[in-house]
Amino acid sequence: MAAERRARRLLSTSSFWLCCLLLLERRASGAAAARSGSPPQSPGSSIRTFTPFYFLVEPVDTLSIRGSSGILNCSAYSEPSPKIEWKKDGTFLNLVSDDRRQLLPDGSLFISNVVHSKHNKPDEGYYQCVATVESLGTIVSRTAKLTVAGLPRFSSQPEPSSVYVGNSAILNCEVNADLVPFVRWEHNRQPLLLDDRLNKLPSGTLVISNATEGDGGLYRCIVESGGPPKYSDEVELKVLPDPDVTSNLVFLKQPSSLVRVIGQSAVLPCVASGLPTPTIRWMKNEEALDTESSERLVLLAGGSLEISDVTEDDAGTYFCIADNGNETIEAQAELTVQAQPEFLKQPTNIYAHESMDIVFECEVTGKPTPTVKWVKNGDMVIPSDYFKIVKEHNLQVLGLVKSDEGFYQCIAENDVGNAQAGAQLIILEHDVAIPTLPPTSLTSATTDHLAPATTGPLPSAPRDVVASLVSTRFIKLTWRTPASDPHGDNVTYSVFYTKEGIARERVENTSRPGEMQVTIQNLMPATVYIFRVMAQNKHGSGESSAPLRVETQPEVQLPGPAPNIRAYATSPTSITVTWETPLSGNGEIQNYKLYYMEKGTDKEQDVDVSSHSHTINGLKKYTEYSFRVVAYNKHGPGVSTQDVAVRTFSDVPSAAPQNLSLEVRNSKSIVIHWQPPPLATQNGQITGYKVRYRKASRKSDVTETLVTGTQLSQLIEGLDRGTEYNFRVAALTINGTGPATDWLSAETFESDLDETRVPEVPSSLHVRPLVTSIVVSWTPPENQNIVVRGYAIGYGIGSPHAQTIKVDYKQRYYTIENLDPSSHYVITLKAFNNVGEGIPLYESAVTRPHTVPDPTPMMPPVGVQASILSHDTIRITWADNSLPKHQKITDSRYYTVRWKTNIPANTKYKNANATTLSYLVTGLKPNTLYEFSVMVTKGRRSSTWSMTAHGTTFELVPTSPPKDVTVVSKEGKPRTIIVNWQPPSEANGKITGYIIYYSTDVNAEIHDWVIEPVVGNRLTHQIQELTLDTPYYFKIQARNSKGMGPMSEAVQFRTPKASGSAGKGSRLPDLGSDYKPPMSDSNMLLVIIVSVGVITIVVVVIIAVFCTRRTTSHQKKKRAACKSVNGSHKYKGNSKDVKPPDLWIHHERLELKPIDKSPDPNPIMTDTPIPRNSQDITPVDNSMDSNIHQRRNSYRGHESEDSMSTLAGRRGMRPKMMMPFDSQPPQPVISAHPIHSLDNPHHHFHSSSLASPARSHLYHPGSSWPIGTSMSLSDRANSTESVRNTPSTDTMPASSSQTCCTDHQDPEGATSSSYLASSQEEDSGQSLPTAHVRPSHPLKSFAVPAIPPPGPPTYDPALPSTPLLSQQALNHHIHSVKTASIGTLGRSRPPMPVVVPSAPEVQETTRMLEDSESSYEPDELTKEMAHLEGLMKDLNAITTA
């Protein structure tokens, strides 16, 4: 049993030691891993953790004594333990071979024997502790200053003095500031113990307050700084008994301004002496300080103030006030409080990947404001392209590389001290995700485990990486999805880029999955960059694209400021400015612009200069001007110079002094007063005035007196009694004398009168009331020996003090005006002189009642005219017949001008009064018609309003953008969009066009946007060839004749994704659900034969009837009629009557056209075919004629008012005549219309359907298949024509004849008039009735045929077309007009297909009527038309059958 028990004990003991060994082994392996910087890897993916590495103790500023020892403490924490080194003044110390300095085990620096002499100071300086862990990095401590106390020197020593009992005394002993702590005092060779009465100031001075007899004796101060003590002079202090007399209050020690750091103590000395003994009190910023209840404020011996634990609130101005009951004195001092740098935000540890950009944040405070520098692993970070200081103190590292790992420290420093804070940067592998919340303080055993990435295929390289936009400082990259993931919805991208030749690479990530474009900002101009793109999916990063080399554009170099600009005055009205050629700038300087401005104004003027100097003439005299120069090269204006100011030379004044007045003092003297000339006319500093005077009887004898300085009066003495004198004054400058005032007269008194008292009462006062005035007359006081300088008249209703008027002493009557009728007035009269006013004399009067009958009205103004001056100003002028012939206003009449505009209709009148025969009306609306009228008022009489004058203000640029901007995609054409908008609400004139800006980057500069011009007032526009599935931003800007208005807000539109349809031009047009097979060839031939026969019969009948009824008795006059449902309107062309043409049909080309009658009351001939379906209304982009129309409309600077007629002429179409019928219901009729020659290779067709159940088919001449299937791809491609680059070359001149019908388009008109073959693509399956007619001999036509274009137009198929949509009649209701159109050609042609024509153009119709030579009666023509209508109905019935 014992053996078994021993075995069990042995087994348990061995198990215990085995567990201990395993635990030690695991801990050792963990420590080894920590030293290597990589903790043990767990089975899953893991990241390295941040290692705690920081200072436990940092060195502080230390004061040491020569020959003694010193220590600078430092200790750092890390696992493993760091290596400690020391720097002195930025250089590492070699402590291995140093006998005096050694490193202590905890890292502190010990100096055994401090060396310090006048020429050798090896130990004094700035020390810094450096801690390094080999596998982690390096950190540095704050900087500490070691100061060695110097040899004791006395800057001031105590002096013998005396003090009265109870008073205060001071003994100076000032030494080096660093030795003040080592100063002590001795009294009679014994150490002096300090108490409440005895105090040592921080400077070493001894203060003795409330002196007693025991304070007398010998005093000296001693400095003990480690060596032998140093003694000052020994002096005696005598204590005198109280003399019971007063003495002046004086300061023995005044406070001086002080600077302290937060937490230190501050002592403000203040010691006063005097009898009686003064008391000391303190104030801060006008507030009394309570030193008794405060714990931090202590009143020391003598009255000095001690502030312990200083805070920022203690800063301010302190006042020491000494008061002894007899007098008070005060002194003041400023306390400035500083603060050491303190971190508000410290840098934090950061995880990152290579090529990323990071920012270490560091926010500090302190007073003075600290400066910040950054240290990486102990080395200073020098700012560069990749290491930048942002937001004052933050460190930004761009394009991380592996070597950027380590410890970064933010070091803040000011005059008070310095501090440091650091953080660690760890760069992870690309396959390790960055933690969302990086731990800031982790122990060495902490490891963050991440879930392993899912396995799966990685994306291949992005395809087709291109720089779609290259600027000076940014590049826009686009690419396609990787081949491995063609959809790419869940793929993100990273763009890596670097300067060519630089290894450091930066990265820019897309903002959302699937985005395939990135704009790289903040690049350098004219620099080559290398770009590559890498895709990432949920499995990780894929392959990188091939490097793309792109060079940014060079930046336009503008000239710098012109150096050495100087300006100097050359005369009172001219200044010369000189300068030199700018040192910088790309390209030769072309010219300079000199700007100058008068000081005190804001209107700057400029002049172009080609040389390096210029003289500005015509300036104001003695006026200061500022000048600056801007150089221009081929790129534009450069940098302006600084302003230089100079004043023109002074000159003689150009105006006389103002307000000259004379005051007779006595019988021999007169005082003259004046004011300086107006400031703008002084032309310099007024240096004095020249006074000239003479006797009125002897004008040639002039006396001159000079008044210097700014004196504005002069006493002229020695004059003769009772004599009239003339005076005048002129101003002086250093340049001479200016013009003088007019002569002013005054007469001296006959005798010297008394002016020691006020005048007596006037001897009499008389009043005579009128309706609105009272005439006052008086006589002077009876005592003529007292001076009277004038009279004061006071008056008012019930009281004489309401108004006061002063008149000259010579005056004896005065009329008080503007009084109320039937009112009781009290009047007072007082004589006055320089002493004051005399006794008043009172009188009262009642004004007469107003019995004037009602006035008769005045004549209204005549000849009212409105002269337009600007977009908001109109001058109204008129004449007044009630004035004399010279139209000079001499009475109190005034004029009232009123004006208004009729839009809106309920606008109220605005009024203004004028006292002249014109008025300037401002604040009007641009491009607005106003009406004006004027009335005159004189007293109670007024005229009626004059006849109105009208005026329309000038146009102004639009002040508001186009509104309601919408963008929609065109159906069936995903790469074409339609932009719609409404005109600006403040167009300020006729809109002449719009500019559409669009771009894929809403933040791009506006000059980088694509511009699409729109001519005219259209409100929609098509833009083609856009990129699929791309967001675009659109802005619109309106323009009128005055310029461009503001832009609208950006509207975003994303083009649709590509559909599965065939490419452009490859898909046949949709024939529609109502498509029916074409007629057979036999039926078509039968219709043609019957049609030709019937038309021939009709023509023969018309010829026979007209030949029998022609008459020659009528006068030959031109007549033209444009008839609508309301009736016909006749327009005169020439003096002759217009004859209708012979109704012979020229058998060349005929058209079948359905025609109806319109009930539109507007008397306008409109071409309105019967609508078929919605597709017929929409113009087709591929139409060749629509492109011609676009070409003309897009690049004309201005549009012709008769665009339809011009268009018809360009197409080679013949003129037609439209004749409305009134009696028959709407039904199709035949319209004959000439078509241009087959020689023209570009044929134009009208796609239309008659109101017939049968469908005919249109054949191309010379081909055996329908048009609907014969449109080749090349034809369609060639019809896509650009309107942006090449203007049309086949423009025909428009007819200049007088129009009889208003040219008007409606939406349906676009299918036949504005666009030929407008439905060719959408509805080409719908056929047209065709008739082949053999031509007979040429006969007289309805109109002169237009000349066909000489050749085919020139096309540019490279760019997409932007067809113009008709906008003028979008809201116009569609009506039909029943017309017949007959046209001929002057020579024989082969048979042509019959097509539906457009309505006749205005100019063509007029020309057609003018060419007619015969004249007919209206009733005859009506009968023939009715007969012709019956024949047409028969022909229509045959055709439809």
List keywords for this structure.
disordered N terminus; mainly beta; 1441 residues; six-stranded mixed β-sheet; single chain; 91 strands
Detailed description of the structure:
The chain is mostly beta strands. Strands 12, 15, 16, 19, 20 and 21 form a six-stranded mixed sheet that branches. Helix content is 10%, strand content 35%. A hairpin with a 5-residue loop joins β7 (101-103) and β8 (109-111). The longest helix is centred in the N-terminal third of the chain and has 35 residues, at 2-36. α3 (1081-1109) runs antiparallel to α11.
Which helices and strands, and how do they pair?
Elements: H1 2-36, E1 54-57, E2 62-65, E3 70-72, E4 75-77, E5 83-88, E6 91-92, E7 101-103, E8 109-111, E9 125-133, E10 137-149, E11 154-156, E12 161-164, E13 169-171, E14 174-175, E15 183-187, E16 190-191, E17 198-200, E18 206-208, E19 217-223, E20 230-231, E21 235-240, E22 247-253, E23 258-261, E24 266-268, E25 271-275, E26 279-284, E27 287-288, E28 297-299, E29 305-307, E30 316-323, E31 328-345, E32 350-353, E33 358-360, E34 363-367, E35 371-376, E36 379-380, E37 387-390, E38 394-397, E39 406-413, E40 418-428, E41 463-470, E42 475-480, E43 492-499, E44 506-509, E45 517-520, E46 528-537, E47 540-544, E48 548-551, E49 566-571, E50 574-578, E51 591-598, E52 604-609, E53 613-616, E54 624-633, E55 636-637, E56 644-647, E57 658-664, E58 670-675, H2 679-682, E59 688-695, E60 698-708, E61 713-716, E62 724-733, E63 736-740, E64 744-747, E65 762-769, E66 774-781, E67 790-797, E68 803-808, E69 813-816, E70 824-832, E71 841-846, E72 862-868, E73 874-879, E74 894-901, E75 910-914, E76 918-921, E77 929-938, E78 941-942, ...
Parallel strand pairs: 2-10, 12-21, 23-31, 32-40
Antiparallel strand pairs: 1-4, 3-8, 5-6, 5-9, 7-8, 9-10, 11-14, 13-18, 15-16, 15-19, 17-18, 19-20, 19-21, 22-25, 24-29, 26-27, 26-30, 28-29, 30-31, 31-34, 33-38, 35-36, 35-39, 37-38, 39-40, 41-42, 42-45, 43-44, 43-46, 46-47, 46-48, 49-50, 50-53, 51-52, 51-54, 54-55, 54-56, 57-58, 58-61, 59-60, ...
Helix pairs in contact: 3-11
